Amino acid sequence: MEKLRIAVRKFDPFETTLQKLWDLFCLKNNITIEAEMIPLELHDLYAETISKKGLKNGSWDIAHLNTDWIFDAANEKAVLDLTPLINENAPQNYPEGWHQSLLHLQQINNGTYGLPFHDGPECLIFRKDLFENLTEKENFKKQYGYELNPPKTWEEFTQIAEFFNRPEQNLYGSVFANFPDGHNMVFDFCLQLWTRGGSLLNAQNQIDIHHAEAIKALEYYRKIINNSKAVHPKTKKFGSVEAGMAFAKGEAAMAINWFGFASMCEVIEESNVKGKVDITELPHNQNHKTASLNVYWLYTIGTGSKHQKLAYDFLRFATTPESDKLLTNEGGIGCRKSTWNDAEINKTIPFYHKLEMLHENALTLPQTPIWPKIAELIDQMVLKAIESSVSSEQLLLETQKSIQKLY
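Given the sequence above, the corresponding structure tokens read:
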């Protein structure tokens, strides 16, 4: 029996949404072919679809790919250019139904290599019940001499995290995702860099991280992660999903994570913080503005798929306003403007409309075929910074030398 095979990013809301969408799609279109959905962790997902050529050789018909990988996938001719299919039969109100920042990374050499699936830039997620508590406010002001509000600078972030760190109550000041998977720590490093006015690129448009802002960024980050008076003790073992779950269970006052983990707090059963969460922009250095990172997930079709027409019909169905809203109600993040401004969604998740604001400050990672390799080098560098006493300058210099060799 032939099956349509879908490589899914392992995350409960994605898995339940996709199953529901497929069942609805089959019912509506009288389709009997089965879909086999395999949930995969980040590393395995990349390996299965791109490294092992699974999209190219027909092992996978559809795959969730994130925008870090799409340049690579298009270069490898692993994913189908959807332009002809879109021209013939576009998704509902395409492209104006989406914010421009969710359409440009999959546009490569005049081709369109995916449709937006799930999104939500990085932000500061915080427990508004703690920040609004009058006793907490009074105690904080006595201790630090200024009003307790979500931190505007990284110094304030450290102080507030230490203030709310209460291991005896299983409450920690903050939680990060430090599992070395080539993503979380790389993103955190970029955010530290950008909010200090630094850049990943030099004047020649090449990756260059050996400079003053990068040293400050790495220095602060290694300090905060090793500050046991400010950070969840399992931070070093957490990926973004685990860090998001710890926050949802009420184990942290603040988190730097994807917007999706804030909205998840309002919809999943395991959440202990429904109605107690809000989001805001990331802290930044006084002379520089805030930044966010926009990496989003796409639905893509394999060039080797024998079911390209069926796969595209399903993608059109999976990106309708109704499907986008379903994803959000399941705990993912819809990508359409209609979902962001939906009254019901904003009733359940009162900060949902703030997505637009985050997108205004959202930066993206450089599009270069060598980015996955560079990300691995930065990941190893941050890990070394956290685990060793080698100076930040030395680590950045060594990593930059390794990056140069890739050019």
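The chain has a mean pLDDT of 95. Try to locate this feature in the token string yourself.
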